[in-house]
Amino acid sequence: MRTLIAAIGVVALLTSVSGAALLADHADLIYDAATGNVKLDPTEAAGGVMTNWAVETSWGTFNAPGVCVFPTVGYAMNTDTAQQISQTDVTQAGFSYVADLGNIFPTGLDAASLAALLDVTHSYVGTVGTGQLDLDLVVIPEPATLTLLGVAGVGVLLRRRR
Length: 162
Description:
Blueprint: H1 2-18, E1 28-32, E2 37-41, E3 52-56, E4 76-80, E5 84-89, E6 99-103, H2 111-117, E7 121-125, E8 132-134, E9 136-140, H3 143-161
């Protein structure tokens, strides 16, 4: 019974950490709520490569211009404004590593707030011919949120022992 409770707790924690169930076959946008840091992970994209990507908001602002660290160097067209950050690799070679874009988003967003911020688009293109797909949004919660989840889990275990 304890194993079942622990397994349910792990599933609940993973779901809360990602903000939604992790989806396969889509590249990830990984957001750190404590710092506003954003990473792009193309490992689940078609071909494991991301050639073009864009995030855009109609109402909020990013910590831009001039803050984003673009992953593709050379033959790329970059946009870095307060409401749109994107990159188009004209060679279509793309990148296949986890790219750290820097602290380009506001801090303290949960999964729903992040999705609302990216109301215009949060998309990418994998290898040539795959078409435009939505990035999976993965939220790393602030340390206080993780601490609260941990305390709640311990409380549940202690209550079960009595």
